[in-house]
Design goal:
- With about 425 residues, this protein is α/β, with parallel strands linked by helices.
- The protein has three domains: about 180 residues, FAD/NAD(P)-binding domain (3-Layer(bba) Sandwich), CATH 3.50.50; about 120 residues, FAD/NAD(P)-binding domain (3-Layer(bba) Sandwich); about 100 residues, 2-Layer Sandwich (Enolase-like, domain 1), CATH 3.30.390.
- Helices cover about 25% and strands about 30% of the residues.
- The strands form seven sheets. Strands 3-2-1-7-19 form a five-stranded parallel β-sheet. A five-stranded parallel β-sheet has the order 9-16-10-11-12, covered by helices on one side.
- Helix 1 runs parallel beside helix 7, helix 8 packs parallel to helix 10 and helix 9 runs antiparallel to helix 10.
Length: about 425
């Protein structure tokens, strides 16, 4: 049995290791489009800060790891998949024949349609090569303009600030982290960043980038300002890297559509990680949830099913925990609320704390928090567990900070704390 895995990120690596554990004699090939050993993109900011060397970003610390497991590594990208012939055409002209195929190609950055984006000193922050280019330019005192203040953008911003640059962030949304935070929360994060010395423009677009004096760039903004920059970082979003599947017959919506076994509409072909679209029980729809815990679990489930061990994905986790220059914020589930739902929130601006809860009937379906690190696990448990709150919903509407009390009271009756409940009854 030959298992071909497209993608050398966390999903691809975990899938390959899972297959090898359960099928010692099967043939496994991982196809990755970068020359480095498999590494974590989430470690790149730590590389920029200087907390780890390049080797510290590698997913497996032993350089012979994949050879030791007899997992073949191929440096190329997928050009096309022929589902009838069960072959993958590679960018280097080669062809791989497979018995089982896992699509774990992740995402790629989206380049905005802005004049001048092809000029030197403009980089995404996605690959190791990007990181090397950024480290050369993002020296202390350098003028750096970052486009985008989403989740990934805020992580990059943290690393840039640590390098001592003069940083400006431009976000076209009306608040920071607009796909994760509501208006109050996003505004609080902006205020925090500005207090830390970062210039932030929200509701603003980069209209054009031109050559300036010397090696500098001139960045024209929609608010009428023109800023000089020694480096421009593009962090305007990513999308699943699935273009090579266009004529394959593998069904794709936002990502590669999968069932509960992570199998696509084509038998024997699976998907996992940031390119996969799986069912989310909280929202009741299929989503691409590009976070590493999802990638890891999807990879494990897909690998077992590729081996014929029927295993179901319990669901997709919608969680985001973000550290923005020392300010912790979280987002779970349907943080923006649902039609016909109710919500409750409390804000302490002076203390930099905000908590917003969203309900559908007596179930908490989502929440946001800023500067509120108490009971983050409880927030996740209530949302993902779809715990029926009963009369406790009204208590939380009156005082959202009673989350722990509500969880202990309501989760007990639904099995999560049944042992503790039985002890008190006795």
């Amino acid at each position: 049995m030959h298992h071909v895995i497209l993608g050398a990120g966390p999903a691809g690596v975990i899938a390959a290791e899972t297959i090898r554990k359960h099928a010692p004699k099967d043939t496994i090939t991982i196809v990755g489009d970068e020359k480095e050993p498999p590494y974590s993109r989430m470690a790149i900011p730590y590389l920029l800060i200087g907390n780890v060397p390049e080797r510290g970003t590698y997913l497996r610390k032993t350089l012979t790891h994949f050879d030791d497991l007899k997992i073949k590594m191929v440096s190329a990208s997928a050009g096309a998949v022929d589902t009838a012939a069960k072959t993958v055409t590679l960018s280097d002209g080669g062809t791989l024949k497979f018995d089982r195929l896992l699509i774990a190609t992740g995402s790629h950055p989206v380049s905005p349609p802005i004049a001048g984006m092809d000029l030197p000193r403009i980089h995404p922050c996605w690959t190791m090569d990007d990181a090397r280019a950024i480290m050369k330019l993002a020296t202390k005192g350098a003028r750096v303009l970052q486009m985008g203040a989403g989740f990934i953008g805020c992580i990059i911003m943290e690393a840039l600030a640590a390098r001592g640059v003069k940083l400006t962030v431009v976000e076209m949304g009306d608040r920071m982290v607009p796909r994760m935070m509501g208006h109050t929360a996003g505004g609080m994060i902006k205020d925090w960043c500005e207090a830390k010395g970062v210039q932030v423009f929200t509701g603003t677009k980069v209209e054009a980038i031109e050559k300036g004096k010397g090696d500098a760039l001139q960045v024209k903004l929609s608010n009428g300002k023109t800023l000089d920059a020694d480096l421009v970082i593009s962090a305007t979003g990513v999308r699943p890297a699935i273009g090579f599947l266009e004529k394959s017959g593998v069904k794709c919506l936002q990502g590669v559509l999968t069932d509960e076994h992570l199998q696509t509409n084509v038998p024997g072909i699976y998907a996992a990680g940031d390119c996969a679209e799986a069912f989310d029980k909280v929202s009741g729809k299929t989503i691409v949830s590009a976070i590493q815990p999802n990638a890891a679990e999807q990879a494990r489930v897909a690998a077992l099913n590729m081996l014929g061990q029927t295993t179901s994905l319990k669901g997709v986790t919608q969680i985001n925990v973000l550290d923005t220059l020392g300010l912790i914020s979280t987002s779970f589930g349907n943080w923006e609320g649902v039609p016909g739902g109710e919500h409750a929130e409390v804000t302490d601006t002076a203390a930099g704390r905000h908590l917003s809860l969203q309900f559908k009937d007596d179930v908490m379906v989502g929440c946001n928090s800023v500067g509120w690190t108490d009971h983050v696990g409880v927030m996740r448990g209530l949302v993902e567990g779809q715990i029926h709150l009963g009369e406790w919903k009204e208590t939380l509407k009156a005082d959202p900070t009673k989350l722990m009390d509500a969880y202990l009271a309501c989760a007990q009756g639904q099995g999560q704390w049944s042992g503790a409940q039985d002890t008190r009854r006795r």
